[in-house]
Amino acid sequence: MAEENKQNGKKDSKKNSSYISGKESRRITKFNRRVTKKLEKERANAEKDPALYTTKMEDPDNVVEFDNVCTYFFSDVGVVKAVDGVNFQVPKHSTVGIVGESGCGKSVTSLSLMQLLQRPSGQTVGGEIRFNKGDGTAYNIVNTPNAVMEKIRGNDISMIFQEPMTALNPVFRIGEQINEVIELHNPDMAPEKVKERTLEMLELVGIANKEGVYNMYPHELSGGMRQRICIAIALACSPKLIIADEPTTALDVTIQAQILDLLQNLKDKLNSSIMLITHDLGVVAGMADYVVVMYAGRVIEKGTAQEIFHNPAHPYTIGLMRSKPVVGQKVDELYNIPGSVPNPVAMPDYCYFRDRCEMQCDRCKGKYPPEIRITDTHVVSCYRHYEEGEVLGYPKSVNVEEL
Amino acid sequence: MGNNDTILEVNNLVKYFPIKSSFFKRTIGNVKAVDGVSFKIRRKHTMGLVGESGCGKSTCGRTILRLQEKTSGEVLFDGQDVFSLNKEQLRKLRPRMQLVFQDPYSSLSPRLPVGEIIGEAVREHGIVPAGEFDDYITRVMEVCGLPSYYKERYPHEFSGGQRQRICIARALALAPDFIVCDEPVSALDVSIQAQIINLLKQLQQDFGLTYLFISHDLSVVEHISDTVGVMYLGTMVEYAPTEKIFAKPLNPYTKALFSAIPIPDPDVKLNRIILKGSIPSPANPPSGCKFHTRCEQCMEICKYAKPEWKEVEPEHYCACHLYNNDQEQKRAEQEADRVRKETKN
Predict the structure, then answer these.
(1) Which tens digits make up the pLDDT trace of B309-324?
(2) In a domain, A344, yes or no
(3) Which of A77, A126, A145, B178 could form an SS bridge with A70, CB 3.0 to 4.6 Å?
(4) ipTM, 2 decimals?
(5) Do A60 and A138 meet the contact criterion of CB atoms below 8 Å apart?
(6) Angle subtended at Cα A117 by Cα A111 and Cα A121, rounded to the nearest 5 degrees
């Protein structure tokens, strides 16, 4: 350590946050290898005993409960706490919108739920993700072994990805790609039945020329059509939960309107829930029943769409609303949130937003704010509401040195 | 309109990309990327150009700067025809018209430090004497909100917002009159978007810049532009001052486009006009009005006769058969008859 300080002092001009000495780098690599090996071993043990990955739902009316989920990446520059103590629920038959800037951990949250993290460097190190089986028990996705996960993925939980251009395989026909999902989860189904179901799905997502499209390749379709195919694949097994990761970001506004309408209708038809991940506040307002706002790996505010949009409580949410130009509202200058997101490798121990916040109070000098309940459904992590609300508890971070 | 007031005039600009057959390299067709676009931009004003992807807005911007040759039509920059200039004259004109690209990740050379990225063209064009070069670059960077010690750093060390500032500084360093901003904020996060838009507006005030702002984000376009042009499949369908076009869009396409803008308020139930299908291929656009295949108010003549580009209300231009007067209606019907007969034969 002393040597490193000396070195830093000598090369003061070169000193910046991304600089790591060779010794430090070797230490990080060694540590990562030890920790990830241990975690992988624990995971392998869980496979033997179903009790290790079966739990109970806190509220049987939820599809998914995230309970203090911590997903860390053991990278070459240190541990990146991409998701750090995230708490929220997805109730049955509703749409939950997750909003935040790029890098805030919204995609990693959904990947943790699908267990699609890039292992071994990406690991869910703490907390529980409870997925409702429907018979009173639940899977704890964090410990669920791969063999079981394969049955859940695509069947109970499915995902629509951001880029319809890259989500489809260019060398297989559309029909085959949808067939594959159905065959995988219904191995006893006759081939004619599978094709019938595929055509039914194509019709459901509003493709007029279904027989023709069945035999086409992805490159023959436009962006909007491809996204419809992705939706058809995701919905082929009538999942209980659909994760839509920025489903319309790559599309034009007119096509976006079509796709959002389609998703909303299909959700009602199939009786599923949607987890809608996006950075577009307008899309969330039109679709979501509940909104979760994330910042730097933590949930900073959650509540019903009405509460979040009409009565935002966290300074970041307020800033985000004010920085987006709205058609029909004339402002001379857009508000911009000063500064930028803190370095993900070395997060401060106080409120992550404090350095950019214009509404600080004395309490903000203390540790990271707890979750504070303002109304029954509205929860915010900000000291400005410390007096008026009920304090629920601090987010629990996992100490990586103890692993 | 006084000539001095108009900085850029585009008349009937056409840009086709030939489709070559694979073996003999014969031209077998054209992608009609820009098909007869006309507009004027006044000095120190911003014109927004909106439309779906593939409608030719970027091609239009690049052809105006003569980054690619036109097929026909004319572009007058400050009274000069851009396409009649020879190499030497064009070189003199280049610093006056600049471009900011969409993707700040791929439009900066990863091998040059920031100071060199911004300064390369300044030196090349001799904007300032060699002695003042360093001070000048520092000043330009400060104006764009970049501290001067960034000069030694390389693009990979910066975030998207900072990179876009570098792109803007690079354009601004040549002291241009006119900047084409090709989707400058679509790759950025909402809070960073606001910073860049505010910066662009500030620079416009301080340096008297004129912008052609190409974007598909209508709320951003409404915020920054003085006039808005809407493009569909290579043609302009509507052009008007921002307040007018947002208050009362005339063309059915514009109406549908504006109705699809998501509004961040859960209580506002959108009255969306959902367009059916997707944009037809520009290599083989529909006859008559190009929008007729998806239009809600499509009439018989729309299928055969091209609508005329005309001033429907003062300063509000639109191309649609809905606003024909008797004389134009007659002409359109005649044309429709003629085309119908031709197709029958």
Answers:
(1) 889 998 899 999 988 8
(2) yes
(3) A126
(4) 0.79
(5) no
(6) 145
